[in-house]
């Protein structure tokens, strides 16, 4: 309130004639001040469609992952249903470019019990979907640079569509693996010490 009994320019009138200093909240109750709009945002709820189905946990131990790429995957109906209940393993699989197409080899999708007549072959080769530019890049990485295409994670994206992430990787030598293992052991030990100290 101003010294003369009036209201200062920045004051707001509240019910009962009370005033509260500060910027005008505007029509939506958002405080306008210092050139920006301040608002309390509700946290986004986790998307119910996103679900990790299978993960290759050894990939980063056995390989040095230089980059990764998301691919679509062609599936039969029984395979999609099996994936939704978590029946998959990609630890022993790999991807390869053959005859101008990208394939997932030796990926396991468990049988879907309800699909007795129209079931699928568990370890069949499955076509992966990328655009032509990405396919050319993957072919060059494997054929010219000696890289390996390692499946990292199989999941349903936010639209509920099955996707697989491939790592473009180089195989680690034994001393590299030992260094990775030592680093991982140190991280575990450090976390344990921090828990005990806290």
Offer a quick outline of the entry:
The chain is of the alpha+beta class. It has helices at residues 59-62, 77-84, 132-143, 174-197; strands spanning 12-13, 19-20, 31-33, 36-38, 51-55, 63-73, 88-89, 94-98, 101-105, 108-109, 126-129, 148-156, 162-171. The protein folds into two domains: 1-41, no CATH class; 51-172, Small protein B (Small Protein B, Chain: A), CATH 2.40.280.10.
Helix-strand blueprint:
Layout: E1 12-13, E2 19-20, E3 31-33, E4 36-38, E5 51-55, H1 59-62, E6 63-73, H2 77-84, E7 88-89, E8 94-98, E9 101-105, E10 108-109, E11 126-129, H3 132-143, E12 148-156, E13 162-171, H4 174-197
Antiparallel strand pairs: 1-2, 3-4, 5-12, 6-11, 6-13, 7-10, 8-9, 9-11, 12-13
